Amino acid sequence: MSDRGLFVVIEGGDRVGKSTQVRALAAALELSGVDHVITHEPGGTPVGNTLRDLLLDPESDLDDRCEALLYAADKAQHVSRVVLPALAAGQTVVSDRYVGSMLAYQGAGRRLNVDDLKAIAGWATGGLRPDLTVILDIEPAR
After folding, report:
1. Most buried pick, 4, 43, 84, 97, via CB within 10 A?
2. What is the number of domains present in the chain?
3. CATH number of domain containing 18
4. How far is CA 126 from the centre of its chain?
5. How far apart (Å, rounded) are the C-alpha atoms in residues 135 and 11?
6. 54 in any annotated domain
């Protein structure tokens, strides 16, 4: 039996309540005495926060492929510095967004090749897959 923690991801479009659900799950884990880490992408690390600022800045004028690679860089840093250490310590990790968001936004949104994105994301994350992904498929809040 492994002592590795569980990796849970909450995915969905903008303003569908991902952060609300992450907070609710964190509260439930806290009440249950489950050691956990709450995180998000992009960001979640000092390097990731710098990348997030660049990615979300409307003045950045990023090429679509450059944008995808920056998201992949964020994932690499996030997984290596936050997710894997927490899982190795037996903690449950709950992340607001992960690879699914990259596939949706850069694949469907930017019309980049999804197979290329999967390969890049797989390399950036070392192939780490969540134990559970919850996709919120509802109308965004106004």
Report:
1. 97
2. 1
3. 3.40.50.300
4. 14
5. 5
6. yes
Residue 131 lies in a domain: yes
In sequence order, the 6+-apart residues with CB closer than 8 A to the CB of 8 are 25, 92, 93, 94, 95, 130, 131, 132, 133, 134
Mean pLDDT of 6-13: 95
User: How many Cβ atoms sit within 10 Å of the Cβ of residue 83?
Assistant: 26
pLDDT tens digits, residue range 80-94? 999 999 999 999 999
Length, in residues, of the chain? 142
- Domain extent, residue 39, equals 7-136
| Domain annotation covers residue 141 | no
What's the distance, Cα to Cα, between the start and end of the chain in Å? 46
